[in-house]
């Protein structure tokens, strides 16, 4: 009863709940406990009942979250009955639709669960069931056919399925897209993917969760906010925009740490208000001209007026709670020194900043904190490197300064009207200023504003200094890679031709690797960081790098650069859409995609002169990845004619490289600096020069119509294709290694690989994570990415192994797994699994016997083997049998001489370099015989095989006993031969297995002599030679085996076998529910 009390205590969160649970158990369960015989059964019964009740309550609670709970419960019952998944397969939603088979539509129901897309139809007496795992989907798209204008097409490796006639196709497609994305990234891309907290437990995912996730991702992408930022509310409203002297219609987004606004007209006006910048949020008097208004005041003495807000009271209340929490977590300390330097926490209002001096954008801790940090922290570089390493350009100083001064004047005018802090109004006007190129004196500060890295900087005073202190001096693989690339980072620039710039670059890269070990350091980060250091202080450059790596270019800087590959794939689609003639000429756009990889990874910094590339970075920090897409299209458009005339990929590369290397910046105050990887810069003939400002302007005018929502949708679609491409690469590389080493046909190996991977996936679907079987790890070598544990191996063994032994199969599978688990990590790879199967199906007889032999000696057979108490320890293996056997015609034949000669021949032919296997003990030999006996069950030649194995077993027992006696007496081999002499028995004594026809084992017999266990041994050579004396056994082990039929059955039964096992585990609950 103590265990029951503990269980109830664990399931109840409060004392009141515990008492309620206990009262229920007393009323409903205790009176039934008398039917059980022992305490273990009682505990198991109660535990199962409590778990079943919890599962039922969870299911009901999830159903209540749906719009129509009763209909959802009804659909859930049908889903479970029709597809018979384990209980852990959670249904998310369902829809009525048609599934097309050729030109014939089948009306039915589409069920979307956490791991599968399922369709059921019963039409004109024909039942149709489709089950497609999300991880098998290679393409998910909206398309049209001859009959319908809008369908959803699901493409897997082998089939295409079209679904149509939905009431709300947009909703269905978004849910399917979210489910596919979440599941594929959870199972195939856990290297760089962190699920939202609400989606951490797949069995709790609901339709609402997926819709909220889609909204969250759009919100974070649109405003380029941190991944952990959670959206709370979206509501229509209007914002007073003083520059247009009217209210602008749009939507307000509120999250953990931000209030954001986006106008309905794309690009008209966006605002980002970090709550740490907010001073107050107040409700104003409601009037007919200003319905439901609120005022949000910020530190720079600006105020934002929002009107037409529904449920204003609750909105303001929730915002005030979060505002208080943000200020408590990140208090702002004011600098009392009074000087208006760039580190003062005061953020100037627009009226105070009419001159060109840029107001403070940083908020740090107090003066005392700064002084203490100076004493303990490493010395950081205090200013941007361009301020130290000034370069003289080709233009006259007056000309250079006048151009810069004009730009600064334009920006200052803009600051006065639109604001100069992170809370500025972001309009089309500022986009045009950015496209012209940001003045060098303002570049670093505006990068901080546009990326909102300024908020991270202000929220983490002293963080970077501590990171530098912790990380510097440590040596590891990452720091070695960083050291190797330090002197390759903008070597043409004087800032990185001396230790000052190199040391700053080393500190930033090492600190970031220490902050984010999942990314660590990737090539191209050095080039990006070196440019950031040119225009920003060292600490600012660090936070800019954080913003780029962790939110502006998600999943770019990891082991497989998935994010960059996804964007390359999106770029291909944009080429087809905007440059169809070029796409038609270049049939394989992957060549262009490979050329453009560095465009995305380094933001054109590595393939364009630096003074031009920084203008691209300006646009990137303002517009995000959209700027890189449209600039890439503009580059291809400018070279479309030459690219269409190119004969091969090499010529296309030359065309683009020459063009990019000759992009100049006429407004740059510094001298020209070539691109880090510039090609063909030593042309004999002059090449036309393109001005970067003109190229950027063309990119906005021709290709600037892509919205963030469209780009995110394309990213989601192409991420599926990229992840599946990696899966195909992994599969091909594993098969390429395995094919030469086995005799199984390549197409059968592919089927085996799919079964192996599916077994791993099914455990991820429905089993609680176990420390032995980790998730798929794409960072490991190809052969080690998918591994299975003992339970998963047992399932596959039962499905595809030819050595099925009835109830003994599971035990044989356990021993096989232990044999294959060389490194004792309780996991095996595909290669080991297939090598073992290859011996079973295609090995020579001696290879098969050797494998069986190894399965019955350590490490495969252990002292604690659950089948060690064999029922064969009885006169089935009688040691009183002679070595002379009666033949069917009554004649006697002596096998001794033949056996001795065969053993000698085998010993001579044995490879001297092969490690000799240990001899088999009597206990191990009993297990070996039992396995053979089980393998022959239901074979067409069953009786002959039983008789043959009885003969061989008796022979081997005699050999073992003779060896035991000769070993104990110290006599030689000749004496052994004399001991083998025996008289011929009558024919009826020949059968070692007492009743081979029925397979029954006599129970009234004596076992082995007690003293025989110690030194009784038999070798592999003895066993092999003995088996060769029986033709029926030779035929059994040498007959051809068909793996194809096994594979077909395995594909059909793999799911049902797993479901059966899962249901068996939950059998106590099922039994309890019927009581």
From TrEMBL:
PROSITE patterns, A to Z: TBC_RABGAP
User: Looking at the record's lineage, which domain of life comes first?
Assistant: Eukaryota
Q: Where is the composition biased (Low complexity)?
A: 963-975
Q: Name one GO biological process term.
A: system process
Q: InterPro entries of this UniProt entry?
A: EF-hand-dom_pair, GRAM, PH-like_dom_sf, Rab-GAP-TBC_dom, Rab-GAP_TBC_sf, TBC1D8_PH-GRAM1, TBC1D8_PH-GRAM2
The UniProt keywords, alphabetically, are: Coiled coil, GTPase activation, Repeat
Molecular function as annotated in GO: GTPase activator activity
In what residue span(s) does the Rab-GAP TBC domain sit? 437-624
Task: Quote the Pfam families the UniProt record gives.
Answer: GRAM, RabGAP-TBC
Per the database entry, which stretches of residues form a coiled coil?
Answer: 896-923
Which stretches of sequence are listed as region Disordered? Answer: 963-1012
Q: Locate the compositionally biased regions of type Polar residues.
A: 983-1006
The record describes the protein's role as: May act as a GTPase-activating protein for Rab family protein(s).
Q: What is this protein called?
A: TBC1 domain family member 8
- Provide the gene name from the record: TBC1D8
């Amino acid at each position: 009863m103590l265990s029951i009390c503990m269980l109830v205590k664990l399931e109840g969160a409060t004392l009141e709940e515990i008492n309620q649970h206990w009262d229920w158990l007393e009323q409903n369960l205790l009176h039934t406990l008398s039917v059980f015989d022992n305490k273990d059964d009682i505990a198991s019964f109660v535990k199962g009942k409590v778990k079943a009740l919890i599962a039922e309550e969870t299911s009901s609670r999830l159903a209540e979250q749906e719009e129509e709970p009763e209909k959802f419960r009804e659909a859930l019952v049908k889903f479970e009955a029709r597809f018979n998944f384990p209980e852990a397969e959670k249904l998310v939603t369902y829809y009525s639709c048609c599934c097309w088979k050729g030109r014939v539509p089948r009306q039915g129901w589409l069920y979307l669960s956490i791991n599968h897309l399922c369709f059921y139809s019963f039409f004109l007496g024909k039942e149709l069931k489709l089950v497609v795992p999300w991880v098998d989907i290679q393409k998910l798209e909206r398309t049209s056919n001859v009959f319908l204008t809008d369908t959803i097409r699901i493409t897997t490796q082998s089939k295409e399925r079209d679904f149509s006639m939905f009431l709300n196709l947009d909703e269905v497609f978004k849910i399917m897209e979210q489910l596919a994305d979440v599941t594929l990234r959870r199972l195939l891309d856990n290297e760089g993917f962190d699920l939202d907290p609400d989606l951490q437990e797949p069995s709790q995912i609901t339709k609402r969760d997926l819709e909220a996730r889609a909204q969250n991702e759009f919100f974070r992408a649109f405003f380029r906010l941190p991944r952990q930022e959670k959206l709370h509310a979206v509501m229509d409203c209007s914002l007073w925009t003083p520059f247009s002297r009217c209210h602008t219609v749009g939507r307000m987004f509120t999250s953990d740490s931000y209030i954001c606004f986006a106008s309905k007209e794309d690009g008209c006006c966006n605002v980002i208000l970090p709550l740490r910048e907010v001073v107050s949020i107040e409700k104003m008097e409601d009037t007919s001209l200003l319905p439901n208004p609120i005022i949000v005041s910020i530190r720079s003495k600006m105020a934002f007026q929002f009107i037409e807000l529904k449920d204003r009271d609750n909105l303001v209340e929730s915002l005030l709670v979060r505002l208080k929490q943000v200020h408590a977590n990140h208090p702002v300390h004011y600098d009392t020194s009074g000087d208006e330097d760039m580190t003062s926490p005061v953020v100037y209002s627009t009226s105070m900043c009419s001159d060109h001096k840029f107001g403070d954008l940083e908020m740090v801790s107090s003066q005392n904190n700064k002084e203490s940090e100076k004493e303990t922290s490493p010395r950081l570089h205090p200013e941007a490197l361009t301020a130290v390493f000034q370069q003289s350009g080709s233009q006259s100083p007056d000309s250079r300064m006048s151009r810069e001064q004009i730009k600064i004047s334009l920006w200052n005018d803009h600051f006065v009207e639109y604001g100069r802090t992170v809370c500025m109004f972001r309009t089309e006007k500022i986009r045009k200023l950015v496209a012209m190129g940001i003045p060098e004196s303002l570049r670093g500060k505006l990068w901080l504003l546009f990326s909102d890295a300024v908020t991270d900087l202000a929220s983490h005073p002293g963080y970077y200094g501590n990171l530098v202190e912790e990380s510097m001096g440590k040596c590891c693989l990452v720091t070695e890679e960083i050291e190797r690339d330090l002197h390759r980072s903008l070597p043409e620039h004087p800032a990185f031709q001396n230790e000052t710039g190199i040391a700053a670059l080393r500190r930033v890269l090492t600190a970031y690797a220490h902050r984010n070990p999942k990314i660590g350091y990737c090539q191209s980060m050095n080039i990006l960081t070196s440019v950031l250091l040119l225009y920003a202080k060292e600490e600012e450059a660090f936070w800019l790098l954080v913003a780029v790596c962790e939110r502006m270019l998600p999943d770019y800087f990891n082991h497989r650069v998935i994010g960059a590959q996804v964007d390359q794939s999106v770029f291909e689609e944009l080429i087809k859409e905007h440059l169809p003639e070029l796409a038609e000429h270049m049939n394989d756009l992957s060549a262009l995609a490979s050329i453009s990889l560095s465009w995305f990874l380094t933001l054109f910094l590595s393939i364009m002169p630096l003074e031009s590339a920084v203008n691209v970075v300006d646009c990137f920090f303002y517009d995000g990845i959209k700027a890189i897409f449209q600039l890439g299209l503009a580059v291809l458009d400018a070279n479309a004619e030459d690219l269409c005339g190119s004969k091969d990929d090499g010529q296309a590369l030359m065309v683009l490289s020459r063009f990019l290397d000759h992009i100049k910046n006429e407004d740059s105050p510094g001298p020209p600096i070539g691109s880090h990887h510039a090609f063909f810069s030593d042309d004999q003939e002059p090449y036309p020069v393109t001005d970067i400002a003109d190229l950027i302007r063309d990119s906005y005018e021709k290709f600037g119509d892509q919205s963030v929502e469209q780009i995110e949708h394309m990213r989601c679609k192409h991420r599926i294709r990229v992840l599946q491409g990696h899966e195909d690469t992994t599969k091909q590389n594993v098969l390429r290694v395995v094919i030469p080493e086995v005799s199984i046909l390549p197409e059968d190996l592919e089927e085996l690989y799919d079964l192996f991977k599916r077994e791993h996936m099914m455990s991820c679907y429905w089993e609680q994570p176990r420390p032995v079987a980790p998730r798929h790890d794409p960072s490991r070598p190809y052969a080690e990415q998918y591994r299975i544990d003992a339970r998963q191996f047992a399932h596959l063994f039962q499905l595809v192994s030819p050595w099925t032994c009835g109830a003994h199969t599971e035990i044989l599978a356990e021993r096989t797994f232990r044999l294959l688990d060389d490194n004792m990590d309780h996991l095996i790879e595909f290669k080991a699994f297939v090598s073992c199967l290859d011996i079973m199906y295609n090995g020579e007889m001696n290879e098969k016997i050797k494998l069986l032999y190894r399965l019955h000696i350590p490490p495969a057979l252990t002292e604690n083997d659950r089948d060690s108490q064999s029922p064969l320890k009885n006169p089935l293996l009688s040691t009183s049998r002679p070595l002379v056997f009666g033949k069917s015609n009554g004649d006697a034949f002596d096998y001794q001489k033949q056996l001795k000669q065969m053993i000698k021949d085998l010993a001579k032919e044995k490879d001297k370099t092969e490690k000799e296997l240990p001899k088999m003990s009597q206990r191990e030999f009993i297990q070996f015989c039992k396995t053979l006996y089980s393998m022959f069950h239901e074979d067409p030649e069953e009786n002959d095989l039983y008789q043959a194995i009885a003969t061989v077993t008796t022979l081997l027992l005699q050999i073992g006993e003779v060896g035991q006696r000769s070993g104990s007496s110290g006599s030689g081999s000749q004496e052994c031969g004399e001991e083998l002499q025996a008289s011929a028995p009558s024919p009826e004594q020949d059968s070692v297995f007492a009743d081979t026809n029925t397979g029954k084992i006599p129970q009234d017999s004596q076992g082995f002599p007690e003293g025989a266990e110690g030194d009784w041994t038999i070798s592999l050579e003895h066993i092999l030679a003995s088996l060769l004396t029986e033709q029926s056994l030779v035929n059994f082990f040498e007959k051809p085996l068909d793996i194809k039929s096994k594979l077909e059955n395995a594909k059909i039964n793999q799911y049902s076998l797993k479901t059966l096992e899962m249901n068996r585990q939950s059998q106590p609950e099922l039994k309890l529910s019927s009581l």
